[in-house]
Amino acid sequence: MSSDADTTAPQTAPEAKARASSYTYEDLLACGRGELFGAGNAQLPLPPMLMFDRITEISNEGGAYGKGLVRAEFDIRPDLWFFPCHFKGDPVMPGCLGLDALWQLVGFHLGWLGSPGRGRALGVGEVKFTDQVLPTVKQVVYGVDLKRVRQGKLVLGIADGWLEADGKRIYEAQDLRVALFQS
Q: Which alpha helices (H) appear in 33-170, and where do they start and end?
């Protein structure tokens, strides 16, 4: 059979990009526009709610549980939108934004695996904050370690996650739950 008639042809450029092992900011914006995983599938939020600048590593193996991982980075600048309003004279990144970034990464992982549907956070088991992200922080690193991935009629990811500010782990979240839903 010639390659022209082969129904298992190599991935097109967008499909290949959807399964890369790292992503630039421009790639993340394409995901937010619905271009990375296809219309109706997992999308990241667009800025200002996109809470990381790049995904440095993503895999369906490895991590604390051997079921996959995602690592991402966010460059902190004193002029980020949330510092002037949270709180005036006492700027700090809202903890809920760091938590949302972890949910975003779990949902991205499900889309990256090729699962269809739109991502929605379903909950979290436990969250612990031991410090805060101030405007003096240079970089936040997020980590998500998948514990369970279900890809059937229900597409569900359960993961533990963490946030490090300039190398110090300051957030931990257990049992982050994200599902993909089809209309």
A: 95-112
